Amino acid sequence: MEGSEELESSLLTQPWASVCFGESTFLAKACFRDTGYILLISDLSSVWYESADAKAVGQRSKELNKRLTVPVSSFLHRLRNLMCPLLAGQPDAATSFSCHCAAGGLSLHVKSELSGLPFYWDFHCCPTPVEMVSRHLVRPLIQMSLALQYQVQELTSLLLQKDAEIEDYRESGAALSRDRLRTEPFQEKTFQQNFMAESLPRICGAGEGQAFTSALQQLYTAVTQQEAKQARKRQRSEDTEGLAPAEETAEHPCPPPPPQEDETASSSEGTTPASSPAQKPRLPAAKAKPKKAKGLFS
User: I want to staple 36 with a disulfide (CB 3.0 to 4.6 A). Which of 53, 170, 189, 275 is the partner?
Assistant: First the structure.
């Protein structure tokens, strides 16, 4: 049975999507299982979440849908079928969503149908812990930025190689059959300046709803899958390191005592003063004969 940690791990690789509730645009991601769900939603000023297990879903469904007597799994299945199309940009026309922010939280109200009867649901979201925001938003965005930076560097290198190849063709006497295909050699510095002056203002003015395009969603999923893979690898390494000392302790529960001869010699060396020429050397003390251990019935 999946717990909350497994559910959040599954949520990690789900991409953020732009959704609209009324005139407000949000970023959201969700994961639904037979054991419960997790919902993350943000207006880029705050981040809220709700995590509910099957027991909490069953209790709330009785309060909101008294006429419906269906298993909890049916409620979860219905919620997934309502939210997934919304996150995919294809909301159900027969379903309405509305949100309300109050007292630091966010409530998302859903109205639809189930088994021919009205179906209602309220997501009660509270502020998301900082660590969760970092895991699902901050760290992936930083990794995505680094990945895109490396991609730009590789494309720049490829363009310079292509320019060198074209120049070699020209020097060999090759000519373009269509003059409109002629291009100027790529200048990285000029390209960066033009991008900052022309393209960047246009991108920033596109609005918050374009925060995660389809290509960025794919990149986010790829980045978070690598993060989850590295986390599993670290966990296995920690588990292996934790087992090694336990095995050694089981094999040798008590370290063997030091040999008696070494202790006697050490004691003799540490307490016997250096002998002078007038003194006779002392003979080594006779070893005490070890006493035979007495048994319980001896």
Answer: 53
